[in-house]
Amino acid sequence: MKLNINGDVNRTFCQNLCLIFFPGAKFPENEPENSGLPEVYIDVHEENGIIVADAVIVSGGTRTAGHGSARICDYVSRDRAVKTSVGSAVLEAGGKLNGTLPPWGILTGVRPAKIAAEMRKRGLDREGIVPALMSEFMVREDKARLLADVNATEEKAVSLAERDTCSLYISIPFCPTRCAYCSFVSYATPAYLATLPDYLDVLCQDIERVCREIKESGERLLTVYIGGGTPTVLDGKQLDRLLSVVRKSIGDTRLLEFTVEAGRPDTVTAEKFDVMLSHGVDRTSINPQILDDGVLELIGRRHTVADFYRAYETARKSGIACINTDLIAGLPGSDAAMFADTVDRIIALAPENVTVHTYCVKRAAEFTEKAAVEGDRLGIYSYSGGDTSECVDYSQRALYAEGYLPYYLYRQKNAQGNLENVGFSKPGHEGLYNIFIMEELQNIRAVGAGAVTKLVGGEKEKIKRIFEPKYTYEYLKEHGKRE
């Protein structure tokens, strides 16, 4: 599509606004005239401390317009006022074009809960945050209340993440198979899996190094999170070695939370959970995504619904304190009734955490590549979200009704219906690491291929990110240079 901007506004922000109404759109620099593709025109300027914006969308022979304005004040910076006014204008024009407004208004970022946290600092309570989100960011009321609930639930965890604390993330970027919605092509190939033994050798050395750095810095380590990929692709001996190195490296540190993801039910064994418990692991995740064998086969999972139940029972019998289950709303091949049935069956198991993700279109995923060649037969691109909106709404109503509370929330580009991913927990079982990393409250030290260290710094300092090489062979090569 063509995007024409007159005025000082971030182009990426404007592109993200356009993607709300035109999922999957591209923004080539030299789009030819009369290409027939949608066009968006944005004009923004300042008048006596007020940022004024106008937007026009031309698509399929239809022309719609919108207007927005925002005043610069003590708690609204010029940048925020520009985004509010431009967002209002584009939303009005897009709403006229499509007949509906997006549930999250002009919020396009990954971490909308940070906006609620800023409002809390301004002195607003839960009931004040809701109308502020609705008026300042055009967020729909139910989403504003959800965000206010997340802010209230995470408050205790936020107080734990003082400036001298940190968490450790350890990456195991391997999977038994590749899911059709996943963009990480190499994680499950035989050649990639063959690097696992060497990878584990180098990873253990890096864990020892980073833990020494943590001790030397004087930081207090609060949580350890081993994710992936699928960490339980390691066999029992490999997992024992990894966890032994972690335990030895952190010494007598008393962790608030120690998570090992066991996402694929087909990688779960009683032996592995015995190993986890022996090293103090107290949280895990077993992810069915949806409880329907046909859809599981379609998306490339190697397990069945029965496999999930066996894996869940194994984890529960082990005595681990906290089990999370991940679900995905809007998976190709699924529908609202199927997802509601999945939610009900998961609630009946009473896991401590339930995380409901919205299906997201990822550029290099198999589903996305097929849609580009064969056409979008599975309906992976959707502005309205269709059944997905119904799925997400049902899951939230059902979880609230059973006493679960939302404790962290994030959003992704190209999510069905511009919807959200939400972690729910039983009170007192909130996933601390998830809150810490999502709200960017403390340093996250990260090791392993694809891992990203985040150094938070002071309140007004930009977060410094240190990226590890993405693939294991690159990581191994880089480690050879360090030596």
From TrEMBL:
It comes from the Bacteria. Residues 160-411 form the Radical SAM core domain. The keyword Oxidoreductase applies. GO terms for cellular component: cytoplasm. Its EC number is 1.3.98.3. Gene3D superfamilies: tm_1862 like domain (3.80.30.20). GO terms for biological process: porphyrin-containing compound biosynthetic process. It is an enzyme of class 1 (oxidoreductase). One of its GO terms (molecular function) is 4 iron, 4 sulfur cluster binding. InterPro entries: Coproporphyrinogen-III_oxidase, Elp3/MiaA/NifB-like_rSAM, HemZ, rSAM, rSAM_horseshoe, rSAM_sf. CDD domains: Radical_SAM. Keywords: Oxidoreductase. The keyword Oxidoreductase applies. PANTHER family: COPROPORPHYRINIGEN III OXIDASE (PTHR13932), OXYGEN-INDEPENDENT COPROPORPHYRINOGEN-III OXIDASE-LIKE PROTEIN HEMZ (PTHR13932:SF1). This is Coproporphyrinogen dehydrogenase HemZ.
